[in-house]
Amino acid sequence: MKTLCSILVAFLLTGLEANAQITGYALDEDPVFTATVAQHLHYPATAIRGSVYGRFYVKFSIDSTGSLQNIAVLYPQISPKIAKSLGFEYELINSLRQVPRLTSRYRGSYILPVAFVYINYNEDSKPRVPTNTLPEKYLDNSLILNEVKVVGRSDMYRSLRPLSGNAPASRQVVLF
């Protein structure tokens, strides 16, 4: 039994080492990548105005020159009209387009989870954290990075709200 456990542990550790060699370095720990995303990724004003929150998964690749390519929202897939009116996809894609050329050691395919967390002070002060997860059918050989959280509050952009200035009830984007 001990021999079987030892072989199993050795096999698992070997698999982890091999995976680490394939993925190379941790992109989500790269100071240029994280600082650029943090600087350019904002909660869309139209989504705050509508009290909408959600978790999005953005897929992209880094080529041999270190450039980000093929940036696209993988999940959830919402209608283009709603996507345009809420502004989440624009913010996500635009912020990743701002990332300068990185080192080629990050070459590969990635999925970046981004949670737009909403605090609606008209309901209570609890953050509305998205509950959706990435379905298995979207998983491939891409490396899933650590989630980025962007917080929006109902007291932001009050001048954009009609009449009362009060925020409507909070809604998660996957329900559209």
Automatic annotation (TrEMBL):
Gene3D superfamilies, sorted: 3.30.1150.10
The protein's name: TonB protein C-terminal
Residues making up the signal peptide according to the UniProt record: 1-20
Taxonomy of the source species: Bacteria, Pseudomonadati, Bacteroidota, Cytophagia, Cytophagales
UniProt keywords, alphabetically: Signal
